[in-house]
Amino acid sequence: MSEELHPSVAGAQPYMREERQGSGTTDEPLFESDEGRERLEKIRSRYPSARPALLPLLNYAQEKNGWVSTRAMEEIAGALDLTPACVHSVATFYTMYNKRPVGRYLIQVCTNISCHLNRGDDVLERFLEETGTRPGETSENGLFTVVEAECLGACGFATVVQINEDYVENVTPEKVPDIVDALWARAEGRDA
Amino acid sequence: MAFPHRHDLETTTLLSRHMGEEEARHLDTWLERGGYEGLRKALTMEPEEIVQVVKDSGLRGRGGAGFPTGMKWSFMPGADDDRPHYLCCNADESEPGAFKDREVLRWSPHLLIEGCMIAARAIRARHAYIYIRGEFFPVLPILNRAVSDAYREGYLGEGIMGSGWSCDLTVHVGAGAYIAGEETGLMASLEGRRAEPRVKPPFPAQVGIFGQPTTVNNVETLAAVPMILTNGAEWYRQWGTEKSPGTKLWCCSGHLNRPGNYEMALGVPLKDILFDVCGGIPEGRAVRAVIPGGSSTAYLTPDELDCETTYEGLKEAGSSLGTASPIVMDESTCLLRATRRIAQFYAHESCGQCVQCREGTEWVTEILTRIEHGDGRMEDIDTLYDLCEQLTGRTICVLADSVVFPLKSSLDKFRDEYEAHILRDTCTAT
Known about the structure:
The complex is a heterodimer.
Chain A: H1 34-44, H2 54-65, H3 70-80, H4 84-91, E1 105-110, H5 113-116, H6 120-131, E2 144-149, E3 161-163, E4 166-168, H7 176-191
Parallel strand pairs in A: 1-2
Antiparallel strand pairs in A: 1-3, 3-4
Chain B: H1 27-32, H2 37-42, H3 47-57, H4 69-74, E1 85-91, H5 101-107, H6 109-122, E2 125-132, H7 140-152, E3 168-173, H8 183-190, E4 214-218, H9 219-231, H10 233-236, E5 247-254, E6 260-265, H11 270-277, E7 287-291, H12 311-316, E8 327-330, H13 335-349, H14 355-372, H15 379-390, H16 399-413, H17 415-424
Parallel strand pairs in B: 1-2, 1-4, 2-3, 5-8
Antiparallel strand pairs in B: 5-6, 7-8
Helix pairs in contact in B: 3-6, 6-9, 13-14, 13-16, 14-15, 15-16
């Protein structure tokens, strides 16, 4: 990014990056680099005390590593002068933190009421079939993790599927094979 | 990202005027469209005067509760209080059925920033936070760019628009918790804690984030503020009714020919929105039930759709305007299954503090699942009614009550569905 990150949005960067997820067990230290220390300072400057920086820093851990490890939680605890147990109790409350590495493509299928009425359950089933996985499990090639999601807030475009940071809308079971094929192609293209 | 709004239908475009226009996201082009004029005016006014204009407009909270916005602002301490005051914009849109705030955020980010600054001035806040749900990643680059530009050009920060007044704004991103949309849950989450709601009082205006006076307003509420300041309270009242003035973004989903977002003056009959604007039910099927205000509101039957879409009108019809998010179910819908899916959501999202909610929502889901699988007993209906009683008004927040509205109304209005499943293991859906 060429433009300097304004402190007002330093804690608001997207944190499910394709290039970070599916990278095995990458677990880089967060605040040993200049970039990490700068992010920490910018985020902290927006709050009158340390603890409100917790979610933004957990987000940063996931942005950086694709998941939030126990080690990362401990590092954040140290930076904010909190106990590791306190950070752990917060991190486990929120569903978006990957407490273990996920596939390169985290596929979240909404089956909540509006999607449910528009065959969301069948869409989920089809994603599981096409990727050969069970819910929450990562495929052996490390590419896919499929989970059932609660409402993603795009109910007029059911069924809604979130793939990493992107929304895919109006998904029907029939469209699923093409979506999965496109992800395969993307992964292979990048590997080549 | 698809764009849902349709200008070719009989809708009113105040909030949604520039939705779908990519260039309107940028500060310079937004200014050409009259952006920040409301704030310019507000900067010449005393906080009490701004509160009075919003009170006079009759604007009500668009996050679900419908509380009068100007009155909420007036609960904040006055000039003699030297504690820091805060504004929180609730952008944690997560009520199943609702998808309006995302549209404001991604198409008109400067409208929201302007609304935040006017509100902040009205409540004497020097820092505003926009708490946005984690899943809305595609919105973040758009909103972040708008906020950064607004800082650079002096619409945020020190000496806003050349005035002596200063205010900061910070974008704060959540991480997946429905309950963070409840205002005290949101405050806990912003403070870096589990999003567990707390008992009120004390109300946020006395003890809010960081222990200081705080106002929490929904995205759509704040987005309506700039035009009210620019044009005046009377102008705003030309839409809607006496008690429910203005326009509302309707989020229409489920079995509809044209689902999507439509901005309508409050008060038009619900059936006009569903059948005229949204084009009715696909393949000419009949409607079986409508949940009018998001999944936490009571079912309406087909003969109850004449009601007017105001806070009062939907209450009178036995339901609620909520987030104005009708979920339409056609005659092929199994209402037991639909209700089970709704209950399952609330069981999943219960924060677990209150026993009634933590156990009750789970229990409701289990019983409905058992009936769905053909193992129901007639006494289950009595147990479900009893659970409705146990889940009403006995918990810290209203998450437990939220499951009761669809559940109890389904038992009252569609008892035949339950009996068919229990007695004959069949479904009344066609």
